[in-house]
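Try this one yourself first.
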């Protein structure tokens, strides 16, 4: 176990929107340290969303991220030889992180020509409460609800 708690790093806001959430999202989107490519993909996705919706890219992104953000998660806990799925509340920073990772994962598995197109489609779907990332959130909540009886085993 570590002696001191790791310091929380604050991401610099992104250049186009000046938003820290966008910068965090791009950091998760980035592969092999290629941040400039990740920004190009994200901004291209925002431009695609701007063309297709009247709401705007950033608003659709925020709404999609909010719709995918889970409130509870299940964690495995071994009690007396049996493993139980125990529902737990999630802290705010982890909620945001999980939502971003789900959006990116399901955007990558989508069918489409470019990553920007796939990301735009997933963000628009999640803003409408559809898509793979939203389904993942619903499944997680459903599992937590089903295992509510084991909540007394909490850590």
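Now uncover the answer:
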């Amino acid at each position: 176990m570590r002696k001191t708690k790791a310091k929380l790093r604050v991401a610099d806001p992104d250049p186009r929107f000046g938003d820290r959430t966008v910068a965090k999202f791009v950091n998760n989107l980035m592969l092999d340290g290629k941040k400039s490519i990740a920004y190009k993909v994200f901004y291209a996705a925002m431009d695609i969303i701007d063309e297709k919706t009247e709401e705007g890219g950033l608003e659709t992104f925020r709404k999609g991220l909010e719709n995918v953000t889970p409130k509870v998660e299940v964690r495995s806990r071994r009690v007396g030889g049996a493993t139980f799925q125990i529902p737990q509340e999630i802290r705010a920073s982890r909620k945001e992180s999980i939502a971003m990772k789900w959006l990116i994962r399901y955007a990558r598995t989508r069918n489409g020509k470019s990553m920007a197109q796939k990301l735009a489609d997933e963000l628009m779907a999640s803003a409408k409460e559809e898509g793979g990332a939203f389904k993942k959130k619903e499944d997680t909540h459903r599992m937590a609800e089903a295992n509510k009886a084991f909540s007394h085993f909490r850590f």
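Discussion: Helices lie at 20-29, 35-52, 57-68, 92-109, 115-127, 131-146. Residues 74 and 87 are 4 Å apart (CA to CA).
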